Amino acid sequence: MAEFPQLGQQCSQCKTLDFLPLICDKCKQVYCKEHHSFVAHNCPQSDKQWTPTPVSRPSESISGKCCFCNQSVLKTELVLCDKCHEKHCLSHRHYESHECKHNKTDQKPAQPLRKPLLNASAPNVKGPKNEGLARRVALMKLKQKASGQSSIPMSERLFFKLSYQKSSQLNEFESKDIFLSTEWSVGKCVDWLSTHLSVINNNNNPTQPKLVLTSDGETSEPFPMSSSLKQLESDELIQSGDNLCLKYIQ
């Protein structure tokens, strides 16, 4: 009963909150149904005739009507709509449940959750920036697959895509992703590659075709055997990510 302390009165005998208390017309005290008789509350005026007088219930002050369904409910159960400023019962307190007309004018069109994606079919823009990015991505993939001498420090490694000729008798080429040391000479690179790739190397025999290392291309000149890769890189003849060719020349 704590929700409606303003309703009813307490019995003078048992202190129970009664919504329909009775007033003793002798001692003028308020009692519940159980204690309204003279005997029940030991009324000091019990020698006189008693007629219980019900306390009037202020029904008009504690009840109201829902503006939507017109149902009578306690005023404490009526909710004022902040849009139409009318009172509704708990069942119709929401805008949708009492079809609030004022709420519709305040509704805003739904906004898209995100901006539309860029046109995926837009043509690729070519330029130095895009070419540089493509080269860095290709070099990163090359580093993941390249093989070489594990003792070479990372700071000295140059990575290449190598095409190589297995034999001077065959004009067929295979490919391999490799890394070499900047401290190596071209001659040492040729010797190591021939061993690593099982390529025939007869460079010590002047009568046999010579195995050389060149940049990738049919007309490319062989790199000098005595030059180091660091020197070739400094002269901008090679760089990591380039294509090299190991082949035979007469």
From TrEMBL:
Domain AN1-type: 5-51
Keyword Zinc in annotation: yes
UniProt keyword annotations, A-Z: Metal-binding, Zinc, Zinc-finger
UniProt xrefs under Pfam families: UBL_ZFAND1, zf-AN1
Gene Ontology MF terms: zinc ion binding
Annotated Gene Ontology cellular component terms: cytoplasm
Keyword DNA-binding: no
SMART domains per UniProt: ZnF_AN1
Superkingdom, natural source: Eukaryota
Protein name: AN1-type domain-containing protein
Source organism of the structure: Oppiella nova
Lineage: Eukaryota, Metazoa, Ecdysozoa, Arthropoda, Chelicerata
